[in-house]
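Quick one, T. Sequence first:
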Amino acid sequence: MAAPDHLVIFDTTLRDGEQSPGATMNKNEKLRIAKILEKLRVDVIEAGFAVASQGDFDAVKAIAETIKDSTVCSLARALDKDIDRAAEAIRPAASGRIHTFIATSPIHMKHKLQMEPDQVVEQAVRAVKRARSHVDDVEFSCEDAGRSELDFLCRIIEAAIDAGARTINIPDTVGYAIPEQFGETIRQLLNRIPNADKAIFSVHCHNDLGLAVANSLAAVSNGARQVECTINGLGERAGNASLEEIVMAVRTRKDLFSLDTRIDSQHIVPASRLVSTITGFPVQPNKAIVGANAFAHESGIHQDGVLKHRETYEIMRAQDVGWHTNSLVLGKHSGRNAFRTRLLELGIQFETETELNEAFTRFKALADLKHEIFDEDLQAIASHTRQKEEDGRYGLVCMQVCSETGVVPKARLTMLVDGKEHAVEAEGSGPVDATFKAIESLVDSGCNLQLYSVNNITSGTDAQGEVTVRLERGGRIVNGVGADTDIIMASAKAYIEALNLIARGGIRQHPQVADV
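Structure tokens:
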């Protein structure tokens, strides 16, 4: 068990974060994120839901084989097949955990599980014991604890601890809790459960009412010693408690919390950018800690105060969370070895020389277009090099777009479809619209465009633009991301990547789909 003054950070970006619509990651992308989480010194990495699909299983196993300094965890419903599959996936880990759960609220037990409370307790105990037969480190979660009856929570948690659970998680699954009430729930559980001292109590809060971080901190104030969170607050619906906000709130307000995490906070901003690039979920400028405006001061009074004494308007240093540490490092005269070395410093390592050579070629091409290459540019190069290595039905060979005042915009593209070149063209209301219509005139995907978003990767008029395209077809949602100094080219890349993801298919089982 952790010391009383240590707050365990349990990161679920790779599991709960991936449940954001369109945020599905492949194995290599999950490994990249896992490596930067390890650099962050996250205590526990929930690597996935091993039984969900073969892809999830392979990713969890690959992370378990790679990560040495963090515990690697797999989620499992309170079912034998889930638990056994999770155990198999985390077996190579230096430190492994099985996280099993079952719903405990009246509405879930009645309508989802269709089980009586006694049956739910019996199933929970069986699941924890089976997990303990595989590993010593078992976590048990009461799904929808935020709407569960306190007496029943006390009963099932006591039984789970007796069965061998060493971490007890209290999730606010639907973001229903209010801080004062949620903190009191944690206090009551710790006081009323006889064997509460034999487990670490954890919380996992969703942000449906914008209170995930507040609820998590209220729980910590009342004795919780693990917080489950994600980079950038990523997660289904309105997301989860944000790792960076939890960590910096506890660190900044030690006068109230009297504890700390082991997080190396200088890796927070790089981790945020990597997750944003891979998932295609841009970080809003006014997002706490990692947003572009988080340490910007517009007001003259604020600027004057900061110049005279930083702490007049800043409660933490930008450098402490990774801002301004990733200054320009490379330019057009930089060699291959310097390029490789900086990538390794950023936690980026290619599996083959072919991939490295492709990335270096992209770097040189970019360096010809813009004078200064920043770490964010390198992250984008790495991501899009790996995307190119993935098999895809569609590819872009070349394009020409005409946009002139008083003339209808027109796009001409040469595309690869299953290895064969096709020339297409279309008109549109603007250059991006014409480009997308030209692509669709060839592929006829039947997709609905749900989101088109443009963000600059770095500052300056020569910055790469990063475009996110979200497509939906038949209830399946994917995000495509493209980067280029030419925003129309970036748009085409993003749209084609999304089409490839749709074409690739793949069925994952959602962890809350019950067949108990």
